[in-house]
Amino acid sequence: MTFHPTTLHRKPGIGAAPAIGPGQPVVPQSVSGRFRRLKWAAVGLCLALYYVLPFLRYDRGPGQPGQAILFDLAQLRFHLAGLELRPQELYLLTGLLVLATIVLVLSNVVAGRIWCGFFCPQTVWADLFLWVERQLEGDRRERLRQLYLPMTAARALRKGIKHVIWLAIAAGTGGAFALYFADAPTLLRDIFTGNASSVAYGAVLTLTLTTYALAGFAREKMCTYMCPWPRLQGAVWDAEAFGVAYRDYRGEARMSAKKAAAARASGLPAGDCVDCMACVNVCPMGIDIREGPNLACINCGLCVDACDTTMQKLDRPCGLIDYESWTNIERGRKGEARVPVRVVRAKTAALALAGLATAVAIVAVVATRATLSLSVAHERNPVAVELSDGRVRNAYEIRVSHVAGAGGTVMLGIEGEAAGHAELRTAGNVDPQAEGIAVLLDERGSRRLRVTVTAEPSAAGPITFRLADPVSGESVTASDFFKIP
Fold first, then answer.
1. pLDDT tens per residue across span 198-253
2. What residue ranges are annotated as transmembrane (predicted)?
3. Is 42 in the same domain as 16?
4. Same structural domain for residues 149 and 138?
């Protein structure tokens, strides 16, 4: 079976009602069932995590931010509980993106666009906005009827209230997003008291408008035309993956329940599908799943609930539309027995192992990374200066940082030929002892300083600077050269 951009297969000679046509609004009907309940559970879970996570606290010690998850742009740090990442550790973010990609592809190979149907932010907020719309303007039939009626004061009031609630939800969405970038309780108070920065208000306004536009008006257009994943899924589509599919070998030929009963009584073929259009009416994407797999389908399963409800009313077996592999759909067309869908197979095992290896590598890098950082750059003009007493002085630009946090003190010393009889000087401080000089870190846990080393000409050669944490005992080194004029 070949995957086409819009549909995979259409049996010839079947007169099916088309999906939503161009220019027609997609107004999905409410539905109840197991997948609708799962979607509401996913909506509740995602919203709870999104709004609660910024307020979780984590004690990192004095002088450190107390927010568990914090994107600290001012200090250029990302805090995740006890883990702290800095811009120079961008490779860790790259690893996380690779891991997320593997997990997304794995989920697609197992169950199609299951992420899109249940956990994508666009789906979550669109579901919430649709629920508000139904409460105020009625279900599908009522809203479609109102499209062709003149505007009344009552309708205008309901529409106005709907948009006010939409904007309130969108503002809450934008405000919650901003809370991830500063101390949440403090920023929330500043926003409401008018003391927040213009950057904070700008971020809240931007997220408010985008959420309002995408969840309120774009909806299925976002998932079909703006998101790249529908196009990419063709590259990872798997015939053995679970996906929402129509068992056409059982449903065709379509006819009303009465005509089907008469046909069966006469010994003529009749399908279980009564062309009630319930599957199309409840689809948030406005597609007809009976036309075959469609790139716009987000595998939300609402058409399964709608079809099962119809089948139960007609006292026919459920599952005419169901999560099924395309392999079994083709087997059913040939009259062959259904085979169990193999979740564990070569492709899924390879992707799972790749994801596991990536996760282990990320954890290993984080667990073994150095918390201290030291870089040394030799000044070039002049390279060396000969003093009146015959000794030689070299100058270096040194940058030190410590993941442990702000205000700490680290020790900077030197090793090599110059260590025993060299003088280390910075900002007027002299400490010729072996342990070196104490460096007080700034609020970012870093320090940039100019260091001079004075020694006899015989000390010319490699020189090693050592940075040590007196509390943890950890140390790092960086090498350069001590030169003579």
1. 989 999 999 999 999 999 999 988 988 888 888 887 778 888 999 999 999 998 88
2. 38-56, 90-111, 164-182, 198-218, 348-367
3. no
4. yes
